[in-house]
Write the structure tokens for this entry.
Amino acid sequence: MTGARHPAAHHAWSLIDTGTGSVGVAERAALGTTARVAVWPPHQLARVLTVVDTELGLLDQQASRFRPDSEISAACRDAGGARGGGSLIVSEGLAEAIAVALAAARWTGGLVDPTVGNALAALGYDRDFAVIRRDGPVLTRHAHVPGWQSVRLDGRRLRLAAGLQLDLGATAKGLGADRAAREAATVVPAGGVLVSLGGDIAVAGEAPCGGWPVLVADEPEPASPPPARGGRPGRFPPESPAQVIRLVTGALATSSIMCRQWQRGGRTLHHIVDPRTGRPAAGPWRTVSVAAANCAEANAASTAAIIAGDQAPAWLAAQGLPARLVGRDGSVRLAGGWPAADDGLLEPPGTCRMPAGPGPVRGSGALAGPARVSGGRPAPGSGRLSAGRTPPGPRRSPGAGRWR
Amino acid sequence: MDHDDAERPGWVRLPGYDDDTGYQRDAGHPRGAGSPRAGGVRRLRRASNWTAAALIAGVAAATGYFAHHAPPAAPAVSTVSGTAPGASTAAPGKPTLSNPVTTSSGSGVVVTTGPNGVKTYHYRGDN
């Protein structure tokens, strides 16, 4: 999530030409990445953008760890300050965002953990990615990840351990896409909308015939293509595996270790931290795309898969989540019914797999209220992985066992 | 009700009243509640009640059946072989898109497909 100082934070929407006039497409910088909106009929675009603006603004104000004036920043400061150890009442929006993050943590056995904020900062990702130092001295220590169990949330009442820095990066953008798509669909009663936040996509309303075509792309090798400079974009390298899929309902999210990279002491680091080590995930996958009933769930699953490594394909399949995993060597592996053919239909499950998470994206209606989630309390639900922070052990059945 | 079968002035017996073996007058019984005629009327009334009940039950069953099996008011999803389920034709003016409208990739990278199919990517953090 972007800060107010982000150079592109106040950019207006730009219309995007996709070669057809039957949909309206626009894009702008938001939340430290790019927001893109597609809507049909196209004359509804302006109304939809207004709704999306509102949702993105709310989410940024609630959950950006890079904005000192955000609600989550204030909550973390209070946790470490005079009121440390006490509890505070947060807005319904932030409570929902934290509840979803905790639900994701529980569901993934702790692989997606919102308490990695200090670890990320220690690695150098302590400000908006656009302005972090791309190089620096060698790291001498890694921050301890206190664990999601140290976060207590009961309705809107939040209690954080002193010094804890929350980072909702693994779920918040997905949640934002869900919220924006859902709300936008209410102003397009006879049409459909797609909202993408940095590649985390939610659709609502009626899809175009055959679904929304989406390019699922892997990031190029950092050294091979020239990144965009001076407004001149680099070419997408032909060796990068990419595929067009069609999405009718639900959501799609992609997590990758390739795009947000920086250097410390000559080592390349990235933003997906393994909570078990406090270091960037070192698994075999460089990019994972997952389809789910809602984008927060897809976002959590794709991030968990990057961290889970070898166990990820089996776990995703056990969850019934279509997934596309790109190995560090560029090889592609499909799981959970991801279409093999180009232009194939991607069919996310109609129901949520993440217990206590937000509901599926639909054409209308609001998100369910914030779940009553306490970090340390056992939660009901099936399909979750338990105790991801345990030492390595024998591999268990995905969906019911532990991550190694 | 107790006197439906009473002999009243002006009433005429139906033909064959005395011929029906099932309704044979029992010489030992005076005409009245226990008479064969009274039994016949009761049987007839009982049969009518059962007929009405059967009709009501039949109508209810039929109503229930059609409530659950009625065709939808709007046509269901119409799919063409090879196209997506859910690609309904219900909404007028529903577009068919050939080019991707967006890209799902790692956060911070946006890939666009130009008119000639040229894919370009943008590092949002770099511009």
